[in-house]
Write a structure and sequence with these properties.
Layout: E1 2-5, H1 7-21, H2 25-48, H3 51-57, E2 60-64, H4 68-82, E3 87-91, H5 98-109, E4 114-115, E5 125-129, H6 141-152, E6 156-160, E7 182-186, E8 189-190, H7 198-202, E9 204-208, H8 214-218, E10 224-226, E11 249-253, H9 261-272, E12 277-283, H10 287-293, E13 298-302, H11 308-321, E14 324-327, H12 335-347, E15 351-354, H13 356-363, H14 366-374, E16 382-384, H15 388-395, H16 399-403, H17 406-417, E17 420-423, E18 429-431, E19 437-439, H18 452-465, H19 470-492, H20 499-516
Parallel strand pairs: 1-8, 2-3, 2-5, 3-4, 5-6, 6-7, 7-9, 11-12, 11-14, 12-13, 14-15, 15-16, 16-17
Antiparallel strand pairs: 1-10, 17-18, 18-19
Helix pairs in contact: 2-3, 2-4, 4-5, 9-18, 9-20, 11-12, 13-15, 18-19, 18-20, 19-20
């Protein structure tokens, strides 16, 4: 698990380390500069094959603002100069923070050339130290011109901590921003380098330990986090002495008169992710298709002419059987679909994943929203999985406003309705009513295809019945779903992927992970 910090949290880690722990700012700065210099040197040696050729070819410029981010870049240029590289410094102002002034003095005494005006086209390496995490207003004037020149150059660009112009808390572009090939960040990745568009501007992000105290990180509350491949170990191992009942019973309420594929995808995904038994409760038109696609599944069907009393009696029996429920994929918005959604909201006592048409039904019915908010949360965890269009309908806001406030939107919705919110986007956010935030970093554009969301509901269900609690199941399900997409993309390409490939990708990935043990 890796923590992700917003601007306020990153500043607190820095302040506690310096003020309360007692590690001097200049010590941290030297360590940061060493990591930046080493990243530049590693790139040069890889590009030019030999150290001597790299030394001859490199023309390095550190572009520095007036704060401590600029001071980091000044120190990095000085270290590269001392290692024999042609490294210059370009400062936007002659003076700045105490640390910048001190680093400029050291650099000058070390023989580094310091300029107030340069032609960036003369350099093939640019170290971006204009602005750090604290930028609070749009870049304008001369600074905007310099950013434009950096982006127009043919140079390889390394940003210090975060690309200049990217909001560290939400990834917004503050007027304009440096587009880096690589970002070297310190202690923890900044949220702005994970969320789009900041992620696109950050290039490859490398986290360096420069000595922030563990106590300083512990002092920060409500830290967001993400998973890496090592976190697959969190998935409970299957027991040698077990049977199909050991691994849960997933009820998939999905499909309608003319839509059946979603039910099959969700059910197959649940099976492929560990479920012991899967039952599909679907429209009678879809019985043959589901049985053909997933012969392992139990199939029960409903008819459009069923009375509400008969339907509820049947759903009561199904809920008594299930240890996890999925409702919504391909369900349509018919009156019978509304009745099923209402009944599940009122009566489910197990982890329930609400997706697709069930979300749209809730969005259009204030009574159902009230049922969601007023239900007994001690009985069952509800996981809602809206994409941003569905969230706009659920929350009564615009897609544009949600895109600019992904984390805030997910946290607010989860808190208001006491649910786990899986807000799906290029960076999916998982939030719970306690304001815990997971930000997913797996996945790719090939997953933007019909049925991908249905697969995700099945993955989450599989994780739930495998032994993870509801929030862990949602986070791991999202992560594993993305990894499966990455695996599929590596074999089929992002243009040629379909939803079923994600299921196959997860299966192959998990098999490979098990074989490595």
């Amino acid at each position: 698990m890796q923590y992700l910090l917003n601007e306020r949290q990153a500043r607190k880690v820095d302040d506690v380390t310096i003020s309360k722990i007692g590690i001097p700012s200049m010590v941290l700065m030297e360590r940061a500069a060493l990591s930046v210099a080493s990243a530049v040197e590693k790139y040069l040696r890889k590009t030019y094959a030999s150290a001597d050729k790299a030394m001859k070819k490199a023309r390095i410029i550190a572009v520095c603002g007036s704060g401590n981010n600029g001071a980091d870049a000044v120190a990095a240029a000085r270290i590269l100069h001392e290692r024999g590289y042609a490294a210059d410094i370009f400062v936007m102002r002659k003076t700045g923070s105490d640390e910048l002034n001190a680093q400029l003095g050291i650099a000058k005494a070390s023989g580094v050339k310091i300029f107030n005006k340069v032609r960036l086209t003369e350099y093939n390496i640019i170290i971006d130290g204009l602005f750090g995490i604290g930028i609070s207003r749009n870049i304008e004037g001369r600074y905007e011109q310099v950013v434009t020149q950096i982006n127009a150059s043919d140079a390889w660009v390394l940003s210090v901590d975060i690309p200049s112009g990217i909001n560290a808390s939400d990834g917004r572009i503050m007027g304009t921003a440096v587009k880096a090939n690589k970002t070297v960040t310190f202690g923890c990745v900044k949220i702005g380098s994970v969320l789009y568009p900041g992620a696109e501007y950050s290039g490859k992000v490398k986290v360096e330990d420069i000595g922030f105290a563990g106590a300083a990180l512990n002092a920060v509350r409500n830290k967001a986090f993400t998973y890496s491949v090592d976190d697959l170990e969190r998935i409970p191992k299957r027991k040698a002495y077990s049977n199909k009942g050991t691994y849960g019973r997933v009820l998939v309420i999905a499909g309608s008169f003319s839509m059946g594929g979603a039910a099959s995808l969700a059910a197959l995904s649940a099976y492929r992710n560990g479920a012991g038994l899967v039952k599909v409760f679907t429209h009678e038109n879809q019985r043959v298709a589901v049985q053909k696609n997933i012969p392992e599944a139990i199939v029960e069907t409903y008819r459009d002419v069923e009375t509400q009393e008969d339907l509820e009696s049947r759903l009561k029996k199904e809920l008594e059987w299930a240890t996890c429920v999925i409702i919504g994929p391909g369900l349509a918005k018919t009156q019978i679909a509304v009745c099923m959604t209402r009944y599940i909201l009122m009566n489910s006592s197990v982890t329930t994943i609400v997706d697709a048409d069930a979300l749209n039904i809730i969005a259009e019915d204030k009574e159902l929203k009230n049922l969601l908010a007023c239900r007994n949360t001690e009985e069952a965890d509800f996981i809602l999985t809206p994409h941003i269009g569905e969230m706009a309908r659920l929350s009564g806001t615009s897609v544009a406003s949600i895109q600019g406030r992904l984390i805030q939107t997910a946290v607010s919705f989860a808190s208001r309705y006491k649910v786990i919110c899986v807000l799906k986007d290029a960076r999916t956010i998982v939030a719970d009513s306690k304001k815990t935030v997971y930000i997913n970093t797996s996945g790719n554009s090939g997953m933007a295809t019909g049925g991908s969301g249905d697969v995700l509901t099945g993955v989450i269900a599989g994780m739930s019945v495998s032994g993870l609690n509801a929030y862990e199941a949602a986070c791991m399900g999202v992560f594993l779903h993305g990894l499966g997409g990455d695996y599929a993309a590596s074999r089929r390409g992002e243009h040629g992927m379909k939803a079923g490939d994600i299921i196959d990708g997860i299966t192959n990935l998990m098999a490979a992970a098990q074989n490595r043990k």
